User: What shape does this take?
Amino acid sequence: MTSTDQRYGLARSVTLPGPLRLDGGVLLSPVDIAYETYGTLDPDGGNAILICHALTGDQHVASNHPVTGKPGWWTRMVGPGKPIDPARDFIVCANVLGSCMGSSGPASVNPATGRPWGMAFPVITIRDMVRTQAMLLDHLGVGILKSVVGGSMGGMQALSWPATFPDRVRAIVVIASTARHTAQNIAFHEVGRQAVMADPKWRGGDYYGIGGEATDPPAAGLAVARMAAHITYLSEAGLTEKFGRKLQARETKTFGFDADFQIESYLRHQGIAFVDRFDANSYLYITRAMDYFDLAEEHGGQLARAFRTSKARFCLVSFDTDWLYPTAESRAIVHALNAAGAPVSFVELSSPFGHDAFLLESPELNRVVDGFLKART
Assistant: This one.
């Protein structure tokens, strides 16, 4: 195990012997898990909160990112005096299985060959990610979670927790998420995957050095994938307000295929910055796991069945400008929870920022999460 102080959190990694049985039938062993913890676990273990990150997130939820140097991705929600407070809670955030920030994934070494897995890494699901988190919590001595909290793909994991481990969690917070992907969601992901695989430098996923470092990765393809996905995280109103049809400031006006419009420059920056911290193969694997996710299908085609044995209470939040996972998706989950007899609260918040609103400044969201976590059952 490694440990590094980062502000008030601890960045750690652990190799667990496993085996971890994946939904595809493969037994994965050993299993590397990179994670961060904040706060102290109570003697009775009752104050543990698991935070689940989104597609391109990681375990650095509230401490500076080691690659970019930027603050953690949810410092608005996690920290002293925030709704999820290390003075009160023992907070755990793990890098998901298949990712590239220290957990087992395509860039990690296959013990059978001594070389990076690449595309030989087994197919993974959201439920596999949850099982990996449960292994980590066992290692940390956490039996029952006070809460699981997640937005977007993190919300998928949060929904999967009471369905997979109904006796291990007391409260669930699901923000801007869904119980399954629509055809449109899958279509956008496929555009991104094809962009990666069309890059000549992808080479069938075999672009790693012996130690797993990406020596000459398909950066152009991954950048395009990120650009396409990033559009879905925003709203038309937000884009219009921020960029409109504004042109880049130039001493000499030029036209053509340079970034003439500010929105073009913004998207290109998003793509370039992304490839510095993310692995292309991990992007393929995780987007596929999201597309496979269908919580109703896992329970005989009825979503309510996923929650019938859970004693947890639920809080769902959507945003009115989120067209990636619109409010109707959250309402469908609420209806299923009602049918299962589960206690649930739901609110649609107003924001101009689209799907990304859960990551941005939102006092209303903070109030909702704070009130829900402090409420007694």
Summary: The radius of gyration is 20 Å. Residues 1-7 have pLDDT under 50 and may be disordered. Residues 183-198 form the longest helix (16 residues).
